């Protein structure tokens, strides 16, 4: 029961913090814990170098509430992950990506999974610290030299003096009966403060401020302009050593990087002899008024045309072709004055226009509209015209256009 | 390691020493771990049911007059189900040896008994293999020489997907699986009679390379038997997908088998709630793993949207199949994920029985969903454009009889393996630790 080298004693009259029993094997500690548990103490704890199976029931510790906290945190993370993606991709900034619907639950799953794990993990750590009353910058046991062995090969049990059942003689007798290797008084610590050091608080405040910085910069960039060239975070991907369109190349005598076809040759599959199919023209150069024989007006082609129209045309011309697509609405909302509304496809001159000319417009573009020949296959361009004709018909149809059997529904 | 082996030589840990037969041993804790009076009955009953159901299936299949199409597909689903159980147990046993697990010793013999069904499973693969040899093309299009010649893609894959190489691979798989599973059982039973020093360490050394071969053969057998049904389609995740279900169902099977035996007065004290809790945790973990793998496979294909990959999912969202897809998501992941999360569920026998049974059903549904839509895909391929195709679920009596036959024969096989043996490796040096195993 020697208390040599214990700093707390140097200050003399420090009040008693508790009684510390030391054991040299885990079994003795578990037996002692059972005795203390049965004596119905409340403020006491055991300290071991490693987790000991069966210590929880030996100490009478109730199952922790932590799993429930983590469960709800995980659920919150899942809901936040899905909800945030819904807000960004459906409400705040709807944008077609890879032709997928705005709201594609499959694309949300990985992120919802990550936020679920993130919320659960951080909550586990935070709630564990909070439930254990940590951090604990100072503890009277820190001043006990012998107690350092708790990280090595000794097992300790401490009954605190603030416990209602604590009694200097009785508690000592109880602990004596568990045959500890050493039984010792622990004095309150009057030397070190139990407050978090100002340095740590200050560092936390600085880190928190720094953590806000990237968000503040991103927010500033949203609302301000800059003349500086953009920052290349990955320069070797941004500036690759190949010739881009319209760039010079020292390899060729005329310095033109872009090279045309070799004169007198045609690439395989690019012969495109059929003027009607490939250029929308009849013999003699007039615009064709009929569809080429390869494009039959079938249900399948119509569906295909609808699909392609939805992908390539609808963003500007709108799903109904009134020139009110998503891009137009966005540009109109910005109100910059330089925007010209896309053409309404339901105008008379477009109804009369030969299909060959429409094909030419899609292929090479017209006025502000760029050409789509390099993106949409020949057949699909015709299918789009097929669908567009159906759209035009839909806004200028006569009752006689409706099949006899369905006409009754019109009245 | 050295400690455990030394401990194995000490007399107090050798309860079987001095007994003439390995069976009929009583553990020091007074637990009955003998298969006597149980294995024979189970073998007779399950064997009779299995043989009758198998004959009925064969009769129904041949008399259907559809060139064995219905029989082949129904049988393949049921066969994949029991093969997954067997392979899952083989993987499970090899894993316990590989990591030198202590907790699992009391249930390891059950895993060994089920895994040792591999020769039986080789025999039961004949209803799939014999028609292929006889020139029946009901299951695999790539066995049809005319179709392979007509299709550039199949022709390109013919180097791997041809009947000769396929049969060669099957023989290799089953020889390896049979050898490994019989080895584990044989050595383990031999230890019951005569403990041998250092054997734990040696098994660990054998388990390591075996594990690699188990993983490879399991992957390729899944590719050969199931993925090649749609020979144009490929997924590098398919092997892991099959494995996730196989390992999950093996854990379900072991938990159910242990609890069933406890109801018959065996292993009552040996297998505690702590061991069941661990089997439940493994099951739960692999429910999540299955969902992870299934979704990973789906999402990559969905996102990339490449026709030759999406075709496989397209047909599986056709007609009634999309309800099966949703049912799998809900029944194979969401509901068991929430339902099995609590430790109280895994420690309560009734709840654990219900969940493991449910997951075995879902494993069958999963395999049904992998295999059966292939037939719809073939109909769609042949059908003229625009013609309506019947996409209802192709339930058939054969699905039931095949499943009954194979599950009954699988159980009968395990009971046959268990005759005259202990249900616990009584002389394993790790047994004492396993008996004392606790688990929060």
Written account of the structure:
The complex is a heterodimer of chains A (411) and B (440). Chain A has helices at residues 7-10, 26-38, 55-59, 66-92, 105-131, 168-176, 198-223, 235-238, 275-279, 299-317, 326-334, 348-352, 355-364, 378-395; strands at residues 16-23, 44-47, 155-160, 182-187, 365-366, 369-370. By secondary structure, chain A is of the alpha+beta class. Chain A folds into 2 domains: 16-194, no CATH class; 275-394, Cytochrome c-like domain (Cytochrome Bc1 Complex, Chain D, domain 2, Orthogonal Bundle). In chain A, β5 and β6 (369-370) form a beta hairpin. In chain A, α4 packs antiparallel against α5 (105-131) and α10 (299-317) packs across α14. Chain B is globular, with a radius of gyration of 23 Å. Residues 1-22 of chain B have low confidence and may be disordered. Chains A and B meet through α5 of A and α12 of B.
């Amino acid at each position: 029961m020697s208390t040599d080298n214990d700093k707390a004693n140097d200050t003399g009259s420090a009040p008693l913090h508790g009684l510390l029993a030391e054991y040299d094997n885990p079994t003795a500690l578990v037996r002692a814990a059972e005795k203390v548990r049965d004596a119905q103490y409340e403020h006491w704890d055991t300290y071991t170098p490693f987790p000991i199976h069966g210590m929880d029931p030996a100490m009478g510790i109730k199952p922790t509430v932590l799993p429930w906290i983590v469960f709800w945190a995980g659920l919150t993370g899942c809901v936040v992950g899905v909800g945030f993606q819904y807000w960004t991709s459906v409400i705040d900034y709807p944008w077609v990506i890879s032709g997928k619907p705005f709201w594609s639950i499959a694309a949300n799953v990985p992120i919802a999974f990550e936020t679920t794990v993130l919320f659960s993990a951080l909550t586990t750590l935070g709630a564990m610290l909070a439930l254990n009353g940590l951090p604990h910058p100072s503890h009277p046991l820190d001043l006990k030299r012998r107690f350092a062995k708790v990280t090595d090969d000794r097992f300790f049990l401490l009954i605190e003096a603030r416990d209602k059942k604590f009694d200097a003689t009785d508690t000592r007798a109880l602990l004596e009966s568990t045959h500890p290797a050493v039984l010792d008084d622990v004095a309150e610590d009057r030397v070190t403060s139990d407050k978090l050091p100002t340095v740590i608080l200050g560092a936390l405040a600085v880190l928190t401020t720094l953590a806000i910085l990237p968000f503040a910069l991103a927010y500033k960039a949203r609302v301000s302009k800059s003349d500086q060239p953009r920052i290349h975070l990955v320069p070797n991907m941004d500036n690759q050593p190949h010739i881009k369109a319209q760039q010079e190349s020292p390899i060729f005598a005329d310095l033109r990087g872009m090279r045309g076809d070799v004169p007198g040759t045609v690439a395989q599959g690019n012969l495109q002899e059929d003027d009607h199919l490939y250029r929308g023209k009849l013999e003699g150069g007039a615009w064709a008024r009929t569809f080429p024989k390869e494009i039959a007006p079938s249900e399948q082609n119509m569906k295909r045309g609808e699909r392609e129209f939805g992908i390539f045309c609808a963003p500007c011309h709108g799903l109904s072709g009134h020139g009110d697509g998503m891009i137009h609405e966005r540009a109109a909302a910005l109100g910059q004055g330089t925007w010209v509304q896309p053409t309404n496809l339901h105008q008379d001159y477009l109804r009369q226009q030969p299909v060959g000319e429409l094909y030419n417009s899609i292929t090479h573009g017209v006025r502000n509209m760029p050409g789509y020949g390099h993106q949409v296959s020949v057949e699909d361009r015709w299918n789009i015209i097929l669908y567009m004709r159906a759209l035009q018909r839909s806004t200028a149809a006569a009752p006689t256009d409706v099949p006899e059997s369905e006409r009754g529904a019109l009245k | 390691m050295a400690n455990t082996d030394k401990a194995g030589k000490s007399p107090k840990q050798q309860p079987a020493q001095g007994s003439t037969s390995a069976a009929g041993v009583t553990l020091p804790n007074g637990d009955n771990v003998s298969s006597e009076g149980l294995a024979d009955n189970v073998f007779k009953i399950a064997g009779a049911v299995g043989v009758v159901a198998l004959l009925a299936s064969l009769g129904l299949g041949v008399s259907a007059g559809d060139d064995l199409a219905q029989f082949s597909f129904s049988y393949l689903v049921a066969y994949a189900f029991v093969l997954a159980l067997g392979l899952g147990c083989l993987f499970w046993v090899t894993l316990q040896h590989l990591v030198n697990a202590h907790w699992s010793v009391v249930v390891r013999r059950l895993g060994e008994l089920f895994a040792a069904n591999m020769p039986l499973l080789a025999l039961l693969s004949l209803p799939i293999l014999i028609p292929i040899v006889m020139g029946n093309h009901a299951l695999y299009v790539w066995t049809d020489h005319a179709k392979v010649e007509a299709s550039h893609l199949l022709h390109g894959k013919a180097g791997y997907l041809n009947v000769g190489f396929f049969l060669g691979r099957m023989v290799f798989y089953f020889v390896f699986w049979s050898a490994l599973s019989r080895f584990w059982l044989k050595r383990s039973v031999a230890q019951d009679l005569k403990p041998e020093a250092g054997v734990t360490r040696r098994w660990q050394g054998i388990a390591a390379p075996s594990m690699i071969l188990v993983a490879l053969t399991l992957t390729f057998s899944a590719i050969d038997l199931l993925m090649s049904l749609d020979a144009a389609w490929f997924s590098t995740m398919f092997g892991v997908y099959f494995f996730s279900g196989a390992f999950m169902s093996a854990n379900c099977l072991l938990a159910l088998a242990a609890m069933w035996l406890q109801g018959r007065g065996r292993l009552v004290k040996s297998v505690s709630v702590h061991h069941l809790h661990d089997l439940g945790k493994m099951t739960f973990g692999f429910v999540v793993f299955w969902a992870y793998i299934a979704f990973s496979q789906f999402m990559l294909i969905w996102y990339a949207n490449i026709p030759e990959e999406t075709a496989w999912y397209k047909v599986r969202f056709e007609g009634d199949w999309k309800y099966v897809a949703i049912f799998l998501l809900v029944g194979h992941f969401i509901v068991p994920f929430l339902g099995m999360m609590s430790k109280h569920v895994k420690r309560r026998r009734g709840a654990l029985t219900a969940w493991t049974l449910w997951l075995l059903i879902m494993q069958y549904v999963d395999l049904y969903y992998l295999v059966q839509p292939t037939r719809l895909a073939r109909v769609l391929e042949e059908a003229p454009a625009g013609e309506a195709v019947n996409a209802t679920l192709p339930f058939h009596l054969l699905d039931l009889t095949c499943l009954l036959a194979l599950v009954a024969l699988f159980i009968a096989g395990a009971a046959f393996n268990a005759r005259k043996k202990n249900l616990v490796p009584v002389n394993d040096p790790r047994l004492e630790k396993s008996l004392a195993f606790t688990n929060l």
